[in-house]
Amino acid sequence: MKKILSSLLAISFALAASAQALPSLLIGADPAALATGGASVARPAGAFAVDNGAAAMSLGDKTFSVAATYGMWAPKTAGNSLIGLGAFYQINDKLALGLSGRMLRDKPYDITTAGGQITGQFTPSDLVAGLGLSYAVADGFSLGVTARMVSSAIGESMKGTAFGADVSAMYAAGGFSGALAVCNLGSAISYGGASYAQPMLARAGGAYSIAGLTASAEVDYLFSGALMAGLGVEYTFADIVSLRGGFHYGDAAKALPTYASLGLGLQYAGIHLDVTFLTASKTLGNTLLFGLGYSF
After folding, report:
1. Architecture of domain 2-295
2. Can you name the residues that pair with 43 across neighbouring β-strands?
3. Cβ contact 69:29 at 8 Å
4. How far is CA 65 from the centre of its chain?
């Protein structure tokens, strides 16, 4: 009975976000990117560039950025909590390094014996850690690579580890940036039985900025046969306040579901605060993410 209950709850957690193994690899911890419909691969480098697209780190106008985030992910359905940390440093005008980490935690459940006695609690979770490198091979053109490890525990005796990588390329000139990336290439994960592939995907996106207004778009193709797309806008005035909005199209069976997003950013003297809210989604509605960081 104990093993059956653990297995059922573990499977429920694995399906909660995207109906496949390691849904945490499709969930970013960057509030600003999430607020623009998840269109992140062509964004200028920020604290979460390692996950958004490492190639951007060598092309941005920032030398250093770091941020931490916390939020409630899919509170109406899965009730997960999301914790994230990201940073990057531009060593010179060609080379940059970055790191990222995030944890997706489900609600704890009781562990019971065959007789119904509660012996403790278990909290399913995914822990993802990444290290990124980018190099500007030509003026306005950069390549990036991210190495990543994910440790997943979906049941008391159902735990696994997988290793993967992303490769990305970006071109930026004037107010335009375009980027391509292939993500989650790597080993399958096993929880003690069958093995499950990582949610590999190809991403393509672009962004254009003029007079404080940035429009961004992205299309993602999952090798499992699903399609996602994001469209977002961001307007910054007085270099202090940023208003963001977007729409994300997804496949609830194989990828992140469809949602609409709203966001607010405040920045002063290098310190920035970001808040993002997701709506118009039965699965992800009322998701709320906060971020606090510093850049120069």
Report:
1. Beta Barrel (2.40)
2. none
3. yes
4. 17
Per-residue pLDDT band for 20 (boundaries 50, 70, 90) equals low
- HSE value, Cβ hemisphere, 13 Å, CA-based, for 229: 5
How far from 108 is each of 10, 67, 75, 213, 278, CA to CA, in Å? 11, 27, 14, 42, 24
Q: How far is CA 186 from the centre of its chain?
A: 17
Is 41 in contact with 28 (CB distance < 8 Å)? no
The single-letter code of the amino acid at 233 is V
φ, ψ for residue 13, nearest 5 deg: -65, -40
Domains of the chain, by residue range, sit at 2-295
Distance CA 23, CA 197 (A): 11
Tokens of 199: 């949610």
Tens digits of residue pLDDT in 90-119: 999 999 999 999 999 999 888 887 887 888
pLDDT confidence bin for 1, thresholds 50/70/90: very low
C-alpha–C-alpha distance, residues 177 and 175, integer Å:
7
* 216 or 118: which leads in pLDDT: 216
Read off the pTM.
0.90
- Helices (H) and strands (E) counted in the chain, each on its own, are 3, 18
